[in-house]
From TrEMBL:
One of its GO terms (molecular function) is lyase activity. PANTHER family: HEPARIN-SULFATE LYASE (PTHR39210:SF1). GO terms for cellular component: periplasmic space. Keywords: Lyase, Periplasm, Signal. InterPro entries: Chondroitin_lyas, Hepar_II_III_C, Secre_tail. It comes from Adhaeribacter aerolatus. This is Uncharacterized protein. Pfam families: Hepar_II_III_C, Por_Secre_tail. It is found in: Periplasm.
Length: 983
């Protein structure tokens, strides 16, 4: 038969099938797993979930859930609370039936047949008598409850089908669910004079409604109807399209698909929405494999990936993990409750998003346990959490978290529950403009949590009815201008102050970041320095065209004359300019000053939220600077349990200054409006001078350099010593982390000279173009082509006597050696040894007696008048104790009088297979070595060579490396040469 004779009948069959599916409205995507259960878990996971409930916290959660269903179905099927209670009862009952276990003492036993049958009868009765009413649009407030009811009932139906109940025994239940979903769909797409829900509402309400419809499509995918509102294919199109639109696509979207941008309404309303979205996303992962399908809504069609696998959702989960406080709660940003965690992120299936809770310091009426967190007022998520079967993982956040798109700047001392944590807020753009009715007047505000206790508060969220009681600028830790600040957002209108995170860096001992904002005609930049993961310096730079009265605020968690329950506050503001809050054995000391000293220190009493519609009082510290166009506030915030830092005010007419001392360090810091050179002499330190706007300098308890930082500076001097010098004004950090390791940061291209007492063996950094060491001056000069963290390793100093400087310099035919010690203990003296180029061994050339015992700087000098003038000469000290024990210093080198600087050339760059290397300016020798090393200093290739060679780099990973030449003594002949490998 000709082919055309087949085409017509086949076409008729195709059109008939297409028309039948269009009329039925079922959703049968390719690859779907049609087995039950398919929402919280799959059949293959039931056994492992059951086993996980046998002990520990899971046993406790399951026991509580089981006990909640022992009784009759809640009778109220009309009021919101009653309807929610019935849906929760149905879901929890279905989970117990699926698990088929009950607690008996400290173990689980199989359900008795009659008990199991009773649970199933109760569950079917609840499903068959669902109140399917959905309030008519344009009123949608109660849809938040309807959507949660629908999700719980759908999960209950799904789990019961997974137990083995067939469809024929649940016809009525299925019909009720289909009607309920259809009613919600009908109202969500209703159009009144061109006004409809999804086109007007782009927030948590839209996400909750869409997620409930999407989950309904997964559970009842095979349901059919000639009514469009009751067709699963329309539910899924509505659900996925609008979730995708609200989160990622719309002009007023709540987040961003290209970076961690948070959720604009804040952590609580993210959680509130995602208590609906997460069950739907998890169900999609159980129902469909990874991939894209087209979904159509209101005439527009999009290709949307299965959300369970979509990395865009991970960006939201990453945000929530990144801002998490050490005890497992979220900072109370925007309209967020102070006691809120989100263990429900277990539904993502990824343990890294679920951190352990450490809530022992919360009050009895707060969500102070995992059970309480999962039984929030709005929904019971215990079954969902247990079904996810996730073991919480320790957090892995960096010391500094910088999220400019979501407005989060977080400093941490670690990731354990007792770590220090400081959060500063800096939202702008969409993250700030679409928050509308959930936005606070909080630009640049901070929250501090340490040692397991919240210490500096944002005031939280009582409820939507009382949000303005705790959401104003006077409730937040920010600068007030003439007693006011950014306006609180209202429905449809955000606050009037954007804020921007900028100029951040992170090194081992110091981390830094700024939040810049403007309101009420005033520019404010809050500059924050985390010092040794121990305390925080906040420098607020305030300026305006006209004079104002400025007030620095800190809302601490404690009340003057308070109790153990409220926390306490004490102060010595009149003499020491500081206040101390104490709660649960943890203290926060705040020492605050201003340029030319503050005009007044006062205290106020404010309220913060404890839990839903419950508040308590706390004491607020207020520091004032009045009638000025510009000023700087400088605050030291020190969280501690036993030993507080001693802090003194050192402000001058032109600076705001503080000095701090503890058992290990002496620190000094000051802020000034301009970049004039200013010197300080305080805190038993020699004079410190700088031309930076913000300066920090620290030495340890032996008097040795520890850390330094200048913000927009070019120079820092300590006594007669130049600590750092830059050709360009920049943010610069320089610090010593141990005897031979140094770290730093520079914010731009510049030539930077740093004090370095010993020659470097390694200098690494992303944008280092060249460096050299001046052995005479004891300085390291580094050329930077752009912003860079960098590291320096010097030669090892094994002396028990603390040698802090060993230099040698040629003066015609004489070589002069100088060295210093910081501490000496039973030091008999130093044998000076020399080895000239060509010699195999060091030999002694003199002895210098030591000081014996000393706790102050000691200076030594030796002249070598017999050193060969043309050769390279190497020197070493042998320090001898009184008991005859000896210790060897690093080796230093002095070039011959006719020394020519060696030049290392390499090609090609980038290299793929081989790298040609040529060394000029050094006599050919067999004892030279090449080292190829990574940015972190790891040596990946080491071989001998004689001035010219070819390196095989074919097996090395592509990336940036550095190449240097060492002589027989391990001395660096050439600085690190940048190499790029690109296969």
């Amino acid at each position: 038969m000709p082919l055309k004779n087949y085409i017509y009948p086949i076409s008729l069959i195709f059109l008939f099938c297409f028309d039948l599916r269009a009329q039925s409205g079922s959703w049968l995507p390719v690859g779907a797993d049609l087995s039950y259960p398919r929402t919280l878990l799959k059949a293959s996971q039931v056994a492992s979930v059951r086993n996980s409930l046998s002990n520990g916290i899971n046993f406790s959660l399951y026991s509580g859930l089981y006990n909640s269903i022992n009784g009759s179905i809640p009778g109220d099927n009309t009021a919101n609370d009653g309807r929610r209670a019935r849906a929760t009862f149905a879901k929890n009952t279905a989970f117990v039936v699926l698990i088929d276990r009950k607690p008996a003492g400290s173990t689980l036993t199989i359900l008795a047949p009659e008990e199991r049958a009773n649970f199933i009868n109760n569950l079917k009765a609840a499903l068959e008598n669902i109140n399917t009413n959905v309030e008519a649009f344009p009123s949608y407030t109660n849809w938040q409850w309807r959507s949660k009811e629908l999700i719980d009932y759908m999960i209950a139906y799904d789990l019961l089908r997974g137990v083995g109940e067939d469809e024929t025994s649940m016809v009525t239940s299925k019909a009720k669910l289909q009607q309920f979903a259809g009613n919600l769909y009908t109202q969500s797409v209703a159009n009144i004079f061109g006004y409809n829900f999804y086109n007007s509402v782009k927030n948590n309400h839209a996400l909750m409604t869409a997620a409930a419809l999407g989950l309904s499509a997964v559970v009842l995918n095979d349901a059919t109807s000639t009514t469009a509102a009751q067709q699963p294919v329309n539910w899924i199109n509505n659900g996925l399209y609008n979730i995708d639109n609200v989160l990622w696509r719309d002009a007023k979207r709540q987040s961003d698909s290209t970076a961690v941008a948070g959720y604009a309404e804040g952590p609580y309303y993210f959680k509130y929405a995602f208590l609906n979205v997460l069950p739907f996303v998890r169900a999609m992962g159980n129902f469909l494999p990874d991939g894209r399908n087209r979904y159509t809504y209101n005439g527009a069609s999009r290709s949307i990936r299965n959300p369970y696998y979509d990395h865009k959702f991970d960006l939201l989960y990453e945000w929530m993990s990144a801002i998490l406080m050490p005890d497992g709660r979220y900072p109370a940003l925007e309209d967020s409750y102070v006691d809120m965690g989100m263990p429900e992120l277990a539904l993502t299936g990824k343990s890294r998003y679920v951190q352990p809770l450490a809530l022992k310091n919360l009050a009895p009426n707060q969500l102070n346990s995992l059970t309480a967190q999962l039984r929030d007022l709005t929904v019971d998520m215990r079954a969902a959490y247990l079904a996810a079967n996730i073991t919480p993982a320790e957090a892995a956040n960096s010391t500094l978290t910088v999220l400019p798109k979501s407005g989060n700047l977080v400093f941490r001392s670690g990731n354990d529950s007792l770590a220090n944590y400081l959060h500063l807020y800096g939202k702008n753009g969409l993250a700030q403009s679409v928050t509308g009715g959930h936005n606070h007047g909080d630009a640049s505000s901070f929250i501090l949590h340490a040692k397991g206790q919240l210490l500096a508060l944002d005031a939280g969220y009582l409820s939507s009815s009382y949000r303005d009681s705790v959401g104003k600028a006077t409730n937040h830790n920010l600068i007030l201008v003439d007693g006011a600040g950014p306006a609180i957002g209202t429905d449809g209108t955000t606050n009037d102050a954007e804020a921007f995170i900028q100029n951040t860096f992170n090194t081992r001992q110091l981390a830094y970041g700024e939040v810049r904002t403007a309101y009420l005609g005033t520019n404010i930049t809050r500059k924050t320095l985390q010092v040794r993961k121990n305390y925080y310096l906040l420098a607020d730079f305030v300026n305006a065209p006209a004079a104002h009265n400025y007030t620095w605020q800190l809302h601490g968690y404690g009340l003057e004359n308070g109790t153990a329950a409220t926390g306490t506050f004490t102060d010595n503001l009149a003499t020491q300019q500081e206040g101390i809050w104490q709660k649960n054995g943890v203290n926060l000391k705040a020492h605050v000053t201003a340029t030319g000293s503050a005009d007044a220190y006062t205290k106020g009493t404010n309220i913060h939220e404890v839990t839903y519609n419950k508040s308590e009082k706390h004491t607020t510290l207020l520091v004032q600077k009045n009638g000025v166009t510009q000023t700087q506030f400088l605050a030291l915030l020190h969280p501690y349990t036993t030993n507080a830092a001693t802090v003194t005010t050192t402000s001058t007419n032109n600076t705001a200054g503080l000095a701090a001392t503890n058992a290990a360090y002496q620190d000094i810091a000051w802020a000034q409006a301009d970049t004039s050179y200013t010197t300080y002499s305080n805190n038993n330190l020699p004079e410190v001078g700088s031309d930076a706007r913000l300066t920090f300098y620290s030495q340890d308890n032996t008097g040795s350099f520890a850390q330094a930082f200048v913000e927009q500076g070019t120079t820092l001097q300590y006594g007669a010593s130049q600590v750092l010098q830059s050709t360009q004004r920049a943010n610069i950090n320089w610090q010593q982390t141990d005897l031979t390791h140094y770290e730093g940061y520079v914010s731009r291209n510049t030539s930077l000279t740093l004090a370095l007492p010993a020659p470097p063996t390694t200098v690494v950094g992303a944008n280092i173009s060249d460096y050299n060491y001046n052995i005479t001056a004891g300085t390291l000069a580094i050329e930077f082509s752009g912003p860079s963290n960098f590291g320096v390793i010097t030669q090892n100093n094994a002396l028990p006597v603390r040698l802090i400087n060993f230099k040698a310099a040629r003066q015609e035919h004489i070589i002069q050696l100088n060295w210093q010690t910081a501490v000496e203990n039973q030091n008999a003296g130093f044998t000076v040894r020399r080895k000239s180029e060509g010699e195999k061994e060091f030999r002694p050339i003199g002895f210098v007696a030591g000081k014996g015992n000393s706790q102050t700087l000691s200076f030594y000098r030796f002249e070598d008048k017999t050193a060969p003038s043309a050769a390279i000469n190497y020197y070493q000290l042998i320090q001898t104790d009184w008991d005859g024990k000896t210790h060897t210093s690093p080796v230093i080198a002095v070039q011959g009088r006719n020394y020519l600087s060696p030049e290392l050339t390499v090609f090609p760059v980038p290299a793929a297979e081989y790298l040609q290397v040529n060394l000029r300016g050094v006599a050919a020798a067999d004892n030279l070595h090449l080292q190829l090393y990574t940015l972190n200093g790891e040596v990946v290739l080491h071989q001998k060579f004689s001035n010219e060679t070819s390196l095989n780099v074919s097996k090395l990973k592509p990336g940036l490396y550095y190449l240097r030449v060492l002589d027989v003594n391990g001395q660096v002949i050439t600085a690190g040469k940048k190499i790029i490998i690109n296969h």
